[in-house]
Here is the input.
Amino acid sequence: MKPSRFLIAFGAIALSAGCNGESGTNSNGAPSGPAQTVAPPAGQTWDQVVTKTPEGGFLMGNPEAPVKVIEFGSMTCPHCAEFADETDELVNDYVKTGQVSFEFRNYVRDGLDIAMSLVARCGGPERFFPLTDALFTSQRDLFEKAQSAPPEQQQSLAQTPQGYAQLAGLQQWAAQRGLPAARTNACLSDQSEIDQLVQMNADAIQQYSVQGTPSFVINGELADAPTGGQSNWESLEPQIRDALGS
Here is the structure.
């Protein structure tokens, strides 16, 4: 069985309070020394510079920033939605200076997560972060819509990303934000994107020992998380400052 097909068929729609376990507690290494503010490309700020990485994530900011932060996040994880509300400080105080880049890599946990991730990625680099933030804002509503469908409809549709999108009203949601149905249909059936989502999960586990979401990697090392809790901005910012040497 192909891994992508396994994930699509895996489990019912679930909005887990624990987001599949806790993050690891590896050290992020020694400070690398303070970094100077780096000028962005002419006519832009660093938060407007977004590129897709070879690993499948979307990177905001200076690709050569001395401190590189990666979030492994799930679109159906409430803790990830909470962190999305805190990213203004990360962007304004760190990414915009060119000292820190921020990459988001989808870590899919269920079929609805796959469908939401495919819709977020459907807008390409320029629209990925706005769509991701909007999906986190709508997370509860989309989940409740999917759960409110009759059980027989859930059973018949919860086999493919298109089915999950129909259950949650994702295509209507996307159309209201400038993504026409024909485009989201193509994205929801894009096997190469589905395979990349599955590969990012495997990479997260094999390379960084990610166990839950949100998890963060700073300069190649899994960031510490509060004991018995989920990573958040309060625990992440001091580690970013340490990496900057400030």
